[in-house]
Amino acid sequence: xxxxxxxxxxxxxxxxxxxxxxxxxxxxxxxxxxxxxxxxxxxxxxxxxxxxxxxxxxxxxxxxxxxxxxxxxxxxxxxxxxxxxxxxxxxxxxxxxxxxxxxxxxxxxxxxxxxxxxxxxxxxxxxxxxxxxxxxxxxxxxxxxxxxxxxxxxxxxxxxxxxxxxxxxxxxxxxxxxxxxxxxxxxxxxxxxxxxxxxxxxxxxxxxxxxxxxxxxxxxxxxxxxxxxxxxxxxxxxxxxxxxxxxxxxxxxxxxxxxxxxxxxxxxxxxxxxxxxxx
Length: 279
Fold this sequence. Notes:
Distance between the termini: 34 Å
Number of domains: 2
Low-confidence stretches: 1-9
Mean pLDDT: 94
Order of helices and strands: EHEEEEHEEHHEHHHEEEEHHHH
Shape: globular
CATH architecture of the largest domain: Alpha-Beta Complex
Structural class: alpha+beta
Strand content: 15-25%
Protein backbone atom coordinates (compact mmCIF):
# COMPACT_ATOMS: atom_id res chain seq x y z
CA UNK A 1 0.00 0.00 0.00
CA UNK A 2 1.08 3.58 -0.48
CA UNK A 3 2.94 4.72 2.64
CA UNK A 4 0.42 5.45 5.38
CA UNK A 5 0.47 7.54 8.48
CA UNK A 6 -1.01 5.91 11.59
CA UNK A 7 -3.12 8.84 12.70
CA UNK A 8 -6.22 8.88 14.83
CA UNK A 9 -8.98 10.14 12.55
CA UNK A 10 -12.58 11.10 13.23
CA UNK A 11 -14.52 7.94 12.49
CA UNK A 12 -17.91 9.40 11.58
CA UNK A 13 -17.17 8.87 7.90
CA UNK A 14 -17.09 5.09 8.47
CA UNK A 15 -20.35 4.80 10.39
CA UNK A 16 -22.78 4.46 7.45
CA UNK A 17 -20.67 1.71 5.93
CA UNK A 18 -20.10 -0.14 9.19
CA UNK A 19 -23.86 -0.32 9.59
CA UNK A 20 -24.66 -1.01 5.92
CA UNK A 21 -22.21 -3.89 5.58
CA UNK A 22 -22.44 -5.30 9.10
CA UNK A 23 -18.84 -4.51 10.08
CA UNK A 24 -17.15 -4.42 13.48
CA UNK A 25 -14.03 -2.24 13.88
CA UNK A 26 -10.96 -4.05 15.22
CA UNK A 27 -8.43 -1.21 15.34
CA UNK A 28 -7.85 2.51 14.87
CA UNK A 29 -8.43 4.18 11.53
CA UNK A 30 -5.62 5.75 9.53
CA UNK A 31 -5.12 7.76 6.36
CA UNK A 32 -3.11 7.38 3.13
CA UNK A 33 -0.94 10.04 1.55
CA UNK A 34 -3.81 10.85 -0.81
CA UNK A 35 -6.18 11.36 2.12
CA UNK A 36 -8.23 8.18 1.90
CA UNK A 37 -9.38 6.71 5.23
CA UNK A 38 -8.96 3.08 6.22
CA UNK A 39 -10.19 1.01 9.14
CA UNK A 40 -9.53 -2.65 9.98
CA UNK A 41 -12.82 -4.46 10.52
CA UNK A 42 -14.38 -7.89 10.80
CA UNK A 43 -17.37 -9.12 8.80
CA UNK A 44 -18.92 -12.49 9.60
CA UNK A 45 -15.80 -13.38 11.57
CA UNK A 46 -13.40 -12.69 8.70
CA UNK A 47 -10.84 -9.85 8.75
CA UNK A 48 -11.41 -7.08 6.23
CA UNK A 49 -10.32 -3.53 5.51
CA UNK A 50 -12.78 -0.69 4.95
CA UNK A 51 -11.47 2.10 2.74
CA UNK A 52 -13.15 5.43 2.02
CA UNK A 53 -11.52 7.00 -1.04
CA UNK A 54 -10.87 10.73 -0.95
CA UNK A 55 -9.33 11.05 -4.41
CA UNK A 56 -10.50 10.07 -7.89
CA UNK A 57 -7.30 8.08 -8.46
CA UNK A 58 -8.13 5.87 -5.48
CA UNK A 59 -11.75 5.46 -6.56
CA UNK A 60 -10.49 4.32 -9.96
CA UNK A 61 -8.11 1.96 -8.21
CA UNK A 62 -11.00 0.45 -6.29
CA UNK A 63 -12.81 -0.29 -9.56
CA UNK A 64 -9.70 -2.02 -10.84
CA UNK A 65 -9.47 -4.08 -7.66
CA UNK A 66 -13.01 -5.29 -8.30
CA UNK A 67 -12.08 -6.18 -11.89
CA UNK A 68 -9.13 -8.27 -10.70
CA UNK A 69 -11.74 -10.48 -8.98
CA UNK A 70 -9.21 -11.81 -6.47
CA UNK A 71 -6.81 -13.09 -9.14
CA UNK A 72 -3.41 -11.82 -8.06
CA UNK A 73 -5.02 -9.24 -5.79
CA UNK A 74 -6.94 -8.99 -2.54
CA UNK A 75 -10.63 -9.84 -2.97
CA UNK A 76 -13.19 -7.05 -3.06
CA UNK A 77 -15.99 -7.95 -0.67
CA UNK A 78 -18.13 -4.90 -1.38
CA UNK A 79 -17.82 -1.67 -3.34
CA UNK A 80 -20.17 1.30 -3.55
CA UNK A 81 -19.47 4.94 -4.38
CA UNK A 82 -16.35 5.97 -2.44
CA UNK A 83 -16.40 2.92 -0.13
CA UNK A 84 -14.43 -0.28 -0.66
CA UNK A 85 -14.37 -3.38 1.52
CA UNK A 86 -11.35 -5.64 0.95
CA UNK A 87 -10.26 -8.92 2.39
CA UNK A 88 -7.54 -8.09 4.93
CA UNK A 89 -4.30 -9.90 4.21
CA UNK A 90 -2.91 -11.02 7.55
CA UNK A 91 0.21 -12.95 6.58
CA UNK A 92 3.33 -11.91 8.45
CA UNK A 93 5.88 -12.03 5.63
CA UNK A 94 7.08 -8.84 3.94
CA UNK A 95 8.76 -8.52 0.57
CA UNK A 96 10.46 -5.31 1.67
CA UNK A 97 11.90 -7.09 4.71
CA UNK A 98 13.06 -9.93 2.48
CA UNK A 99 14.89 -7.48 0.21
CA UNK A 100 16.56 -5.88 3.22
CA UNK A 101 17.66 -9.18 4.76
CA UNK A 102 19.54 -10.85 1.95
CA UNK A 103 16.57 -12.29 0.04
CA UNK A 104 16.28 -9.56 -2.60
CA UNK A 105 16.41 -12.03 -5.49
CA UNK A 106 13.65 -14.16 -3.98
CA UNK A 107 11.46 -11.10 -3.41
CA UNK A 108 11.90 -10.07 -7.04
CA UNK A 109 10.88 -13.50 -8.29
CA UNK A 110 7.77 -13.40 -6.11
CA UNK A 111 6.90 -9.98 -7.51
CA UNK A 112 7.21 -11.29 -11.06
CA UNK A 113 4.82 -14.13 -10.24
CA UNK A 114 2.37 -11.72 -8.63
CA UNK A 115 2.47 -9.47 -11.70
CA UNK A 116 1.66 -12.43 -13.93
CA UNK A 117 -1.55 -12.96 -11.98
CA UNK A 118 -2.54 -9.33 -12.43
CA UNK A 119 -1.76 -9.33 -16.14
CA UNK A 120 -3.61 -12.56 -16.93
CA UNK A 121 -6.52 -12.24 -19.36
CA UNK A 122 -10.00 -11.74 -17.90
CA UNK A 123 -13.35 -12.46 -19.48
CA UNK A 124 -14.79 -9.11 -18.40
CA UNK A 125 -13.76 -5.82 -20.04
CA UNK A 126 -11.60 -3.59 -17.81
CA UNK A 127 -13.07 -0.52 -16.13
CA UNK A 128 -13.51 2.48 -18.45
CA UNK A 129 -11.71 4.73 -15.96
CA UNK A 130 -8.23 3.40 -16.84
CA UNK A 131 -5.71 6.09 -17.79
CA UNK A 132 -3.23 5.63 -20.67
CA UNK A 133 0.32 5.53 -19.35
CA UNK A 134 1.49 8.19 -21.80
CA UNK A 135 -0.63 10.69 -19.89
CA UNK A 136 1.57 10.18 -16.84
CA UNK A 137 4.72 10.81 -18.84
CA UNK A 138 3.58 14.25 -19.91
CA UNK A 139 5.01 15.50 -16.60
CA UNK A 140 8.50 14.48 -17.72
CA UNK A 141 8.75 16.76 -20.75
CA UNK A 142 8.72 20.11 -18.84
CA UNK A 143 11.45 18.80 -16.53
CA UNK A 144 13.52 17.71 -19.53
CA UNK A 145 13.09 21.11 -21.19
CA UNK A 146 13.99 23.03 -18.02
CA UNK A 147 16.75 20.88 -16.56
CA UNK A 148 18.08 18.76 -19.42
CA UNK A 149 20.70 16.23 -18.35
CA UNK A 150 19.25 13.06 -16.86
CA UNK A 151 15.70 14.31 -17.35
CA UNK A 152 16.41 14.64 -21.09
CA UNK A 153 17.74 11.08 -21.22
CA UNK A 154 14.65 9.79 -19.43
CA UNK A 155 12.32 11.77 -21.69
CA UNK A 156 14.02 10.43 -24.81
CA UNK A 157 13.63 6.88 -23.54
CA UNK A 158 9.97 7.53 -22.72
CA UNK A 159 9.26 8.97 -26.17
CA UNK A 160 10.80 5.92 -27.83
CA UNK A 161 8.91 3.43 -25.64
CA UNK A 162 5.56 5.19 -25.89
CA UNK A 163 5.96 5.56 -29.64
CA UNK A 164 6.60 1.84 -30.14
CA UNK A 165 4.24 0.12 -27.67
CA UNK A 166 4.37 -3.64 -27.15
CA UNK A 167 2.22 -6.06 -25.19
CA UNK A 168 -0.28 -3.50 -23.90
CA UNK A 169 -2.15 -4.66 -20.78
CA UNK A 170 -4.04 -3.33 -17.81
CA UNK A 171 -1.41 -2.08 -15.37
CA UNK A 172 -1.47 -1.87 -11.60
CA UNK A 173 0.52 1.35 -11.89
CA UNK A 174 2.18 1.34 -8.46
CA UNK A 175 3.60 -2.16 -8.33
CA UNK A 176 6.30 -2.59 -5.68
CA UNK A 177 7.28 -4.47 -2.54
CA UNK A 178 4.88 -2.74 -0.16
CA UNK A 179 1.87 -3.13 -2.46
CA UNK A 180 2.13 -6.92 -2.68
CA UNK A 181 1.19 -8.51 0.63
CA UNK A 182 1.30 -11.94 2.20
CA UNK A 183 -2.09 -13.54 1.66
CA UNK A 184 -1.27 -16.76 3.50
CA UNK A 185 -2.71 -19.77 1.69
CA UNK A 186 -3.80 -17.50 -1.19
CA UNK A 187 -0.22 -16.46 -1.89
CA UNK A 188 1.14 -12.98 -2.52
CA UNK A 189 -1.58 -10.50 -3.48
CA UNK A 190 -1.58 -6.92 -4.73
CA UNK A 191 -3.38 -3.93 -3.24
CA UNK A 192 -3.70 -0.22 -4.03
CA UNK A 193 -3.56 -0.09 -7.84
CA UNK A 194 -3.76 3.21 -9.71
CA UNK A 195 -5.60 1.96 -12.81
CA UNK A 196 -3.63 2.62 -15.99
CA UNK A 197 -2.94 0.77 -19.21
CA UNK A 198 0.15 0.52 -21.33
CA UNK A 199 3.13 -1.68 -22.11
CA UNK A 200 3.58 -4.58 -19.68
CA UNK A 201 7.25 -3.81 -19.16
CA UNK A 202 6.38 -0.52 -17.48
CA UNK A 203 4.87 -2.41 -14.53
CA UNK A 204 8.29 -3.64 -13.39
CA UNK A 205 10.17 -0.34 -13.54
CA UNK A 206 9.03 0.70 -10.07
CA UNK A 207 10.70 -2.36 -8.53
CA UNK A 208 14.04 -0.73 -9.23
CA UNK A 209 13.19 2.25 -7.03
CA UNK A 210 12.10 0.03 -4.14
CA UNK A 211 11.93 -0.95 -1.36
CA UNK A 212 14.27 1.98 -0.59
CA UNK A 213 16.71 4.26 -2.36
CA UNK A 214 19.53 2.74 -0.32
CA UNK A 215 18.78 -0.75 -1.64
CA UNK A 216 18.02 0.47 -5.15
CA UNK A 217 21.41 2.17 -5.39
CA UNK A 218 23.43 -0.74 -4.02
CA UNK A 219 26.28 -1.41 -6.50
CA UNK A 220 25.35 -4.21 -8.90
CA UNK A 221 21.78 -4.48 -7.65
CA UNK A 222 20.07 -3.00 -10.73
CA UNK A 223 21.92 -5.27 -13.15
CA UNK A 224 21.23 -8.39 -11.09
CA UNK A 225 17.56 -7.68 -10.53
CA UNK A 226 17.07 -6.70 -14.17
CA UNK A 227 18.34 -10.12 -15.22
CA UNK A 228 15.88 -11.79 -12.85
CA UNK A 229 12.92 -9.69 -14.01
CA UNK A 230 13.74 -10.09 -17.69
CA UNK A 231 13.97 -13.87 -17.27
CA UNK A 232 10.92 -14.43 -15.10
CA UNK A 233 8.64 -11.85 -16.75
CA UNK A 234 9.89 -12.72 -20.25
CA UNK A 235 10.91 -9.17 -21.14
CA UNK A 236 13.48 -7.73 -23.51
CA UNK A 237 16.33 -6.77 -21.13
CA UNK A 238 17.27 -3.58 -23.00
CA UNK A 239 13.68 -2.41 -23.20
CA UNK A 240 13.19 -3.11 -19.49
CA UNK A 241 16.23 -0.94 -18.74
CA UNK A 242 14.72 1.82 -20.90
CA UNK A 243 11.55 1.65 -18.81
CA UNK A 244 13.63 1.94 -15.64
CA UNK A 245 15.37 5.02 -17.06
CA UNK A 246 12.09 6.60 -18.17
CA UNK A 247 10.17 5.92 -14.96
CA UNK A 248 12.97 6.95 -12.61
CA UNK A 249 13.14 10.27 -14.45
CA UNK A 250 9.37 10.64 -14.22
CA UNK A 251 9.53 9.96 -10.49
CA UNK A 252 12.21 12.63 -10.12
CA UNK A 253 10.03 15.10 -12.04
CA UNK A 254 7.11 14.32 -9.74
CA UNK A 255 9.41 14.86 -6.75
CA UNK A 256 10.32 18.34 -7.97
CA UNK A 257 6.69 19.27 -8.63
CA UNK A 258 5.70 18.19 -5.12
CA UNK A 259 8.60 19.93 -3.41
CA UNK A 260 10.63 16.80 -2.66
CA UNK A 261 14.25 15.92 -3.36
CA UNK A 262 14.71 14.25 -6.79
CA UNK A 263 18.27 13.10 -6.08
CA UNK A 264 17.59 9.38 -5.60
CA UNK A 265 15.33 9.18 -8.65
CA UNK A 266 17.93 10.87 -10.81
CA UNK A 267 20.64 8.56 -9.47
CA UNK A 268 18.56 5.49 -10.38
CA UNK A 269 17.93 6.93 -13.85
CA UNK A 270 21.66 7.50 -14.33
CA UNK A 271 22.41 3.91 -13.32
CA UNK A 272 19.92 2.70 -15.94
CA UNK A 273 21.43 5.04 -18.56
CA UNK A 274 24.88 3.67 -17.79
CA UNK A 275 23.65 0.09 -18.12
CA UNK A 276 22.16 0.91 -21.52
CA UNK A 277 25.38 2.57 -22.64
CA UNK A 278 27.35 -0.57 -21.77
CA UNK A 279 24.93 -2.97 -23.46
